[in-house]
Amino acid sequence: MDFCKTYLCFTIILTILPFSSCRSLINTITPNQALQDGDLLISTRNIFALGFFSPRNSLNRYVGIWYHQIPEQTIVWIANRDDPLNDSSGVLAIDSRGGLTLFGNKNRSSSFWSTNVSISVPNNSMAKLLDVGNLVLLRNNTAQSLLWQSFDHPTDTMLPFMKLGSNRVTGLNNIFTSWKSMDDPGTGNYSLWLDPSGYPQIFLSQGRTPRWRGGSWNGYRWSGVPQMTQTFIFNDTFVNNENEVSYQSDLRNDSILARQVVDESGIVYLSMWRNGQWLRFLSAPTETCDTYGFCGPNGICDPVNMDGFDNKLGEGGFGPVYKGMLYDGKEIAVKRLSKNSGQGIAEFKNEVLVIAKLQHRNLVRILGCCVEGVEKMLIYEYLPNKSLDVFIFDNEKRKLLDWRKRFDIISGVARGLMYLHHDSRLRIIHRDLKTSNVLLDANLNPKISDFGMARIFGGDEIEVNTNRVVGTYGYMSPQYAMEGRFSIKSDVYSFGVMILEIITGKKNTSYYHNNLHSNLVAHVWDLWKEGRALEMMDSSIDEAFGGSALRCITVGFLCVQEYAIDRPTMSEVVLMLSNEANLPNPKQPAFILKRNSSLNTGLSTSDGLNSINDVTCTVVEAR
């Protein structure tokens, strides 16, 4: 019996072994150690892998780099993109000149790709893959003796620490070019590049024809990409001197996987790996008017004179808002949803029916909707004073908001949120509360608007996870921005940021102070600890109301606490604003993301201004 068990086990092992992985994992390619088809070159911390692969629906073999620890193979760089092998006989090895070459077979009789490097002592060469996804060829295994790197020869993907632009000394020009198709990684028709002439500008071109322009660098972002603003996630660096003109983006937290891709359809997008999938945060072009020169060399593409509409009032999360008029002369606001908003007819109508049932003096009333073909429009009550940000961030209009009016706006928004969270028959999380989504009526009374991203909670739901992070960086709580977790406390965080903006007249995400602070919350917090918070009070506010303003600042800090459990509910906030009881002392708020600097690029890095994002990131989630 024991013999039978042993024999059976041995038979099973022999049966399984031929189908198990035979890959050899190596960390360097040397003159004595090549990479064959089936082997993997792994970075030190197992973040990236280099090996042979075939795209879907293709038998061609390529040498590429991909993320090693995620289940979805995501290629970020390809050596022989325009010269594939037709079988699995390929070998990547150090050649007789000390360069790195892809040979078609073990006899090394034909080559398909090479670094074209030649050194006097070839045996000193070695190739390794860094944890930033950079394949480097070194002499004597030192970063100072860099012979060649894949970061200088990009394909379609821009990783953190890669550069877009050109070296004016060597003539090297980093351009990111799309695949031909999803099945063919060969050089495609679309390219992202940096024009170094005059004021350097970023372009996306189809062949030699510009398709989209990101504009020139204005000090902290591309002028044509208003979505790029100061946040606690991204760092951007722009260099323009006699040696180079380049743009580089990296992440403050190296635990995040992010990439910028030029895809085969002519879209450049930024995505992050979260909850088992790639989520797009930013893309361009997205609308017809984003197309470069769409209205001719001297034209401006701006659909503000559509039939039946008087003028454009602004831009919401999913499309422009126009002023209109009904047949009876009643003025209305019409939001025309973008055709690529992603919201279906059923979800659209359901959202309208849900929001129509909300009745509160501090919520914008929806009057109806219009659906015809692919066109979808929402009809709202018209509010002549537009949005709150138009007043508090304007040097002249802010003078119309004395302390009493500002306090009424703060209290009104608080009551509106309390109704959404606690008093309506549906518990609703807004998810995109900010000053531009608070409208003002003729008497400057506030009304919360733009419910396209709102989520309805069931009676027993406290917190929800989502794979689609929507909202605006700078107003998003850390748990929501980084982990996709949101609750009523997410709106509380946004409200706290708004309080500080209303009192100071400064915008959180675009505030700088002597390069020491990345946002408004951080600077006011330091002043508050020193008892000097009122120094940031808007000059339009009478100093006699300093005590009331300071109380509101404290409430604001209680709302932007790092952990949701430390934030008050909106009913507690309303109570704090309506009485003079002592307030608890807030802890340090969440205004930065601590940087983990353990990731070693192996070469050099540059610290710079951080960027992205002050725009709605994704599409409606209707329930």
TrEMBL record:
Domain Protein kinase: start-end pairs: 307-591
GO MF term list: ATP binding; protein serine/threonine kinase activity
Keyword annotations of the record: ATP-binding, Cell membrane, Disulfide bond, Glycoprotein, Kinase, Membrane, Nucleotide-binding, Serine/threonine-protein kinase, Signal, Transferase, Transmembrane, Transmembrane helix
Principal EC category: transferase
PROSITE patterns found in the cross-reference section: BULB_LECTIN, PROTEIN_KINASE_DOM, PROTEIN_KINASE_ST
Listed GO CC annotations: plasma membrane
GO biological process, one term: recognition of pollen
InterPro entries: Bulb-type_lectin_dom (IPR001480), Bulb-type_lectin_dom_sf (IPR036426), Kinase-like_dom_sf (IPR011009), Prot_kinase_dom (IPR000719), S-locus_recpt_kinase_C (IPR021820), S_locus_glycoprot_dom (IPR000858), Ser-Thr/Tyr_kinase_cat_dom (IPR001245), Ser/Thr_kinase_AS (IPR008271)
Pfam family, one: DUF3403
Domain Bulb-type lectin: 26-150
Protein name according to UniProt: non-specific serine/threonine protein kinase
Organism of origin: Cannabis sativa (Hemp)
